[in-house]
Backbone:
């Protein structure tokens, strides 16, 4: 019998274990591989849609959906291309930016679950993130592909789409480094339509980007001090560092705080509560925390950083479509 996308998805799902996605294997678990619910969560899709794909009732998935499934299933390049063909799509060809996150990077990201960390493609579009990233900066799952681009967010004059609330930073060294990154990416991927359109858009709509581009700005990424104005705990001061992966275009953006500091207490509180209230609702829109933050003071969710410390369970890295 000819293979279908549904049969291939089931086979790839069965070979992954919960440990591969950062979860512990519970005693008595019947499923040898990932459950459909787990795959749907990782890929940012509904469970019903995953079921329909596997049963062959959803016959025309978009390239974006296939890319998300390929990342969630840790497919090798050849397997990813096979998935595209089974979906009736052309695989990404050389000369375009890859959205694949290598398996080693995904495992490393799972181990960094306690830190706000995200994986970005060569054009600085967010591909995967840790739960701590979502707790500190807001869940990117509901944002569009355009809003997930760090360069657009960095040069935006209004609210930044990549973070759900304001983020301030010291200096503008990041701007020069991001422009230099896009220039290098355009040399490597001159035929990537999305990258070309991104550069054209920013040159025509952002005067500061156009100036740096026309001046041939170059810059290296250095540790940057950022302040996240979180609506639940107030200002969280972090050091932001960019890590590169040899032989791969993806980059890791990692936020850290000084051990034992007030910012560490705030970040720990957000991490163990997932940045939401006791009813599961996200924080309200950006506004200052109403009282001076103390780690032993209950917030509106009813918990404290001191009480929650050490009580978090490890949750999986979440790829985005």
Residues:
């Amino acid at each position: 019998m000819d293979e279908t996308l549904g049969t291939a998805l089931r086979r790839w799902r069965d070979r992954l274990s919960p440990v591969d996605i950062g979860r512990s294997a519970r005693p008595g678990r019947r499923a040898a591989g990932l459950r459909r619910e787990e795959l749907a969560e990782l890929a940012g899709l509904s469970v019903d849609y995953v079921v329909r794909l596997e049963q062959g009732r959803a016959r025309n998935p978009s390239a974006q959906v296939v890319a998300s499934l390929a990342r969630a299933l840790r497919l090798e390049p050849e397997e990813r291309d096979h998935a595209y063909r089974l979906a009736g799509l052309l695989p990404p060809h050389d000369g375009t930016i890859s959205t694949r996150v290598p398996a080693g990077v995904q495992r490393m990201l799972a181990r960094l679950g306690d830190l706000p960390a995200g994986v970005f493609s060569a054009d600085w579009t967010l591909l995967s993130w840790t739960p701590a990233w979502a707790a500190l900066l807001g869940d990117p799952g509901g944002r569009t592909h355009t809003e997930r681009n760090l360069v657009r967010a960095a040069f935006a004059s209004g609210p930044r789409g990549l973070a759900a609330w304001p983020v301030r930073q010291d200096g503008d060294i990041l701007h020069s480094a991001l422009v230099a990154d896009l220039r290098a990416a355009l040399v490597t991927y001159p035929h990537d339509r999305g990258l070309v359109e991104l550069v054209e858009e920013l040159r025509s709509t952002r005067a500061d980007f156009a100036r740096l581009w026309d001046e041939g700005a170059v810059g290296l990424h250095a540790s940057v001090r950022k302040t996240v104005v979180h609506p639940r705990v107030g200002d969280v001061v972090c050091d932001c560092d960019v890590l590169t992966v040899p032989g791969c275009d993806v980059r890791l953006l990692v936020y850290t705080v000084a051990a034992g500091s007030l910012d560490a207490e705030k970040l720990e509180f957000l991490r163990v509560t997932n940045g939401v209230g006791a009813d599961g609702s996200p924080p309200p829109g950006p506004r200052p925390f109403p009282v001076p933050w103390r780690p032993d003071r209950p917030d509106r969710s009813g918990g404290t950083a001191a009480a929650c410390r050490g009580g978090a369970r490890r949750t999986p890295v979440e790829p985005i479509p």
Q: What stands out?
A: The longest helix spans residues 173-188.
